[in-house]
Write a structure and sequence with these properties.
By secondary structure, the chain is of the alpha+beta class. The chain has 3 domains: 119 residues; 49 residues; 80 residues, Thrombin, subunit H. 63% of the residues lie in helices and 15% in strands. It has a 6-stranded antiparallel beta barrel with strand order 1-2-5-4-3-6.
Length: 255
């Protein structure tokens, strides 16, 4: 009997504990459900704000891109406008310069026309005078050429006469005369030089041949052409073999 009573008491105690635990668990579940509902509501609210903010951000990004594109277009338009302005300014300066030049030429032409009118000379007379002036210029050039040729002949004859009178006479050549050996023939001891009558070379004129500042030989001119001459190497003066490219200068330069 006592055992049955103890069992009943134990069962009742277990039931009481189970009911108490159930009540505690139910309260916790209720609290958790409330917390879950609150967190879910907050999440939905955050999600809504996030989507709204993202849409606003997309709009701002698009507006920013449009602004950048517009700015780039504006900068390009500004640069083009500045370049066009510089080109137009340069063109205006050139036109102003051309205009001033044209005005000056017009003024000069008017002044020349006024001076021409003062002379009282007709256009036909001016043409005739120009033709006569050109003819005189041509005649003068011919006379100068003939005079130069005559002077060369006179100097040549005078030199020959001086040599005949005095066998020891030295023919003087221009002090500034300078030439080069074009051809050298060691067998026959003659050279061809790139200087002649036009440079003032005379027959029997003597020239010193040097290479790099060193005397190589002395030559005497035997034949003279317009821009060439032939000379022989003087015996006893061949200090070395004359070669093409050697430099020649007067042995007896005129003062």
């Amino acid at each position: 009997m006592l055992v049955r009573i103890c069992l009943i008491v134990a069962v009742l105690a277990g039931l009481a504990v189970g009911v108490l635990n159930f009540l505690q668990v139910k309260e916790k579940i209720t609290v958790l459900q409330a917390d879950l509902e609150r967190e879910t509501a907050l999440h939905h609210e955050f999600e809504g704000k996030y989507q709204t903010t993202r849409k606003e951000l997309d709009v701002c990004s698009k507006e920013l891109k449009n602004t950048k594109d517009e700015l780039a277009t504006t900068v390009a338009a500004r640069d083009k406008a500045e370049a066009d302005l510089q080109a137009q300014t340069k063109r205006a300066d050139k036109l102003t310069e051309d205009l001033n030049k044209t005005r000056q030429e017009r003024n000069d032409a008017q002044a020349e026309l006024a001076a021409y009118k003062v002379t009282g000379v007709t256009p036909q007379q001016i043409l005739a005078m120009n033709k006569q002036f050109k003819s005189l210029q041509d005649n003068l050039q011919v006379a100068e050429a003939e005079n130069k040729l005559l002077n060369q002949k006179i100097k040549k004859l005078d030199t020959e006469l001086s040599v005949y009178r005095d066998p020891n006479f030295f023919v003087s050549l221009p002090a500034a005369l300078k030439g080069k050996v074009l051809v050298a023939d060691p067998k026959w001891n003659f050279v061809v030089l790139n200087i002649g009558e036009d440079q003032g070379v005379l027959e029997r004129g003597e020239l010193l041949v040097n290479r790099n500042g060193q005397l190589v030989a002395k030559v005497v001119v035997r034949s003279v052409q317009k821009d060439r001459c032939i000379a022989n190497v003087l015996p006893g003066w061949e200090l070395g073999q004359v070669m093409e490219g050697d430099v020649v200068i007067p042995a007896h330069p005129s003062s």
